[in-house]
Automatic annotation (TrEMBL):
Domain of life according to the entry: Bacteria
E.C. number(s) listed in UniProt: 1.5.1.2
Predominant cellular place of this UniProt entry's protein: cytoplasm
Pathway where this protein functions: Amino-acid biosynthesis; L-proline biosynthesis; L-proline from L-glutamate 5-semialdehyde: step 1/1
Name this polypeptide is given: Pyrroline-5-carboxylate reductase
GO biological process, one term: L-proline biosynthetic process
Residues engaged in binding NADP(+): I7, G8, V9, G10, A11, M12
Organism annotation: Varibaculum cambriense
Known role: Catalyzes the reduction of 1-pyrroline-5-carboxylate (PCA) to L-proline.
Pfam (any one): P5CR_dimer
Length: 271
């Protein structure tokens, strides 16, 4: 029996598999994977000799933990198709946005343990921020094992399910928004004469350093605005840029992004 089965090895499933193996948390031999299009797993098979099952039911029957890496709308049909293959009640791990535990439970044998996780794409480099919630059938030992898997690919937090949509926006979606910010700043650098690659490297290092500085100062109670104030010299360049950013709606845009993502999560939950 493999420890972890993964059905759907796309962007997120692949990032998790890659991160788990690369971090040493799970050897490839302890994983059994199935993806609808096998070609999508070729790089993992070549790089790590990832064991691959002939179908999803084989994965479900042979693993202790079963990670569903398919799109949210595929969760219900996939579980319905699996049917009896789930009779042994593996611990089901869902990373699907907008799919509450109760919705997943409705397509599983009664009292199946379910863990809901919201990772992010930075799992690819073991830098995810993952939120975790579990139903009452997940033992403490199983929850600790699932948490250890996601700790191996970044940081984790236990999140009450009613905060999951907001968590997903802050941690699951925000990498895309930050990538866009990096690209926008780099593009502005190009307008001032930098090559795109050079500008991107400069901005990415500034963003990485800024995030690290926030994390290191939080335990001392110093919030990001205090760091903003440290950078803004009186009558200086930063405050001029900051005010221009706010005039263009920067903070309002950040709030709007979070609110739209939460609203979309709620739509997905209702569908
Ligand atoms: N991308 C992200 O940053 C994040 C995604 N998520 C969640 O992760 C989940 C997956 O999203 P993402 O990785 O982006 O999507 P992808 O489309 O990249 O991956 C989904 C994978 O599932 C495969 N698949 C679909 N149906 C089946 C099936 N019946 N059996 C086996 N494999 C199947 C697809 O195969 P094929 O190659 O044939 O299409 C594809 O490789 C979603 O639920 C999403 O909400 C959560 C947090 C962040
Ligand atoms: O866009 C999505 O729906 C998924 C969930 C969080 C990140 N990507």
């Amino acid at each position: 029996m493999a420890k972890l089965g993964v059905i759907g090895v796309g962007a997120m499933g692949g990032a998790i598999v890659r991160g788990l193996i690369a971090s040493g948390q799970l050897p490839a031999a302890d994983i059994l994977a199935f993806n609808r299009t096998r070609e999508r797993m070729h790089s993992l098979e070549d790089e790590f000799s990832l064991p691959v099952a002939p179908d999803a039911a084989t994965v479900a029957k042979q693993v202790k933990y079963l990670l569903l890496g398919v799109k949210p709308y595929m969760i219900a049909p996939l579980l319905d198709d699996l049917g009896d293959a789930l009779a042994a009640k593996p611990v089901v791990i869902s990373v699907a946005a907008g799919k509450p535990i109760a919705t997943i439970e409705a397509h599983l044998p009664e009292q199946t343990p379910v863990v809901r996780v919201m990772p992010n794409v930075n799992a690819q480099i073991n830098q995810s921020m993952s939120g975790i919630a579990a139903n009452q059938y997940v033992s403490e030992e199983a929850l600790a094992e699932v948490r250890a898997m996601f700790d191996a690919i970044g940081k984790t937090a236990l999140v009450p399910e009613d905060h999951f949509a907001a968590f997903a926006a802050l941690a699951g979606c925000s990498p895309a928004w930050i990538y866009r910010l990096i690209d926008a700043l780099a593009q502005a650098g190009v307008a001032h004469g930098f090559k795109k690659e050079e500008a991107t490297r400069i901005v990415a290092q500034a963003v990485a350093g800024s995030a690290q500085n926030v994390l290191e100062n939080l335990p001392q109670g110093l919030n990001p605005q205090a760091l903003v104030d440290q950078v803004c010299s009186p009558a200086g360049t930063t405050v001029a840029g900051l005010l221009a950013m706010e005039d263009a709606g920067f903070s309002a845009a950040a709030r709007a992004a979070v609110n739209a993502a939460v609203a979309r999560d709620q739509e997905l939950s209702a569908s």
